[in-house]
Amino acid sequence: LTPQLYWQIGGSQDYYKLSSWWADSAAHYNRHLYPGQAAYRIIQNNWPATELPNQIRINRNNPKIDGSVFFRANMMNGKGFHDSLRTDFYRYKALMPVMSWKDQINPNPVQNFRFNKISPNGPYALVWDKPLPAPDGDSAYRYVLYRFTTPSITQNDLDNPANILKIEPQRYSFPSDPPGSGPYYFVVTSLDRNWNESTMSNVVQIQLPQIPVLSFPPNAGINIPDTVKLKWNSADYASYYDVQVSSDPNFNTGFIVNGTVTQDTFLTVTGFAGQQTYYWRLFSKNAAGTSSYSSVSSFTTGFPVAPQPAYPPHASLNQPLTVTFKWLTNELTQKYRFQLANSSTFNEQTIVMDVENLTDTTYTSDSLDYDKIYFWRINAANQYGTSQWSAKFGFRTNPAIGVDYEESLPADYMLQQNYPNPFNPATRISFALPKGGFTTLKIYDIIGNEVAEIVNQDLPAGKYSVNFDASDLSSGIYIYMLRSAGKMISRKMILMK
User: Fold this and answer.
1) Dihedral through CA 331, CA 332, CA 334, CA 339, nearest 10?
2) 3-class secondary-structure state, position 15
């Protein structure tokens, strides 16, 4: 039974009184009671942080209450409640209470409990054979693995949930890291579908695993490719291996891999830098603890270092629509890959150009748009692999369209009438600057609200012409205003749609 006892202790509907009444009623009919408890009200009703923990204590002090059901999981960490379950009330695993009115026949214990390889080339694990059928024909539905620090194990030890390590659905287990160094002792029991538990198996002691021996790449190997399959010899009694790969021989910084755990005797690693020496080591682990580190081996990658972008420089402005990108050469490189994007993320949606198999250290693009921000990068490759991507350089193209520089510079600041005028939806605005300086060209509606900014940058002296697209504006009279070097000129234009 799971009544919804979504009330506080001591209220008009008192959780203590209600849970006691339900517990007596369920026990009268020899049934289980798991009160439903309102974890969501910790936040919704602003219950104190102590409310649910105190309700759990009420449940646990009443032998007629078998557990709790919390509503609901994604609201359970209000005021740290989930954390209190994980670190306090539910810090140990538990077995489901047996429904005695259904079945009270215990299954038989497992057979041949041992610490062995699960396959000829596989890791070591705790392994057992299926138990013989019980008198009711049941075998085993789950298995309970216990860990102890002494080989003398009593029924009281099995009744202590702190000793439950895992509840497994299969006939083997890779125990988690122990709290300290062994020796440790293990037993396993079987459970039927009603969670009746067998007697314990034989006791298995696990010793520390041997130190693994590195085998590939060879120590001080050179011209290692960009993807490396690190290999080592299987260590006796090892269930797992913990691997480190770093550019630092002391393993303090520069990690490519740090603490990656695998049951295999190999690990495929990528993400290396070109022409870089790396160092690697590992240790083996099992349910008794960890070995010492293996010896340290090194290797040097053979593919190029990442190229260095040179032109256009990062964060540059007023770049033309035709740009020749340049980067610094790398003598080991056989080809380059160039990417241009309108975002620094360089995801599939933002890449506007992706050119492979370049053999020169320049690339010219003549398809850029006006007044756009672009980012570019390159990598380098040879027969040993591909470098990491270079740094990302960004630039902005020139917003002016059709910029003309005459041999004789204009004598004064000019802002010409837009053409055509009236217009729909685009028109062209020309202006002249006798001196260079920071210049803005902005559009305002008739009551003075700024609706567009066409130019906002340093410009050299010269004559300029820009397009203005008013597709997003409504019909009416607009003012366009030029400001440069303290000068201000404005004119009217008419948009007719």
Assistant:
1) -80
2) helix
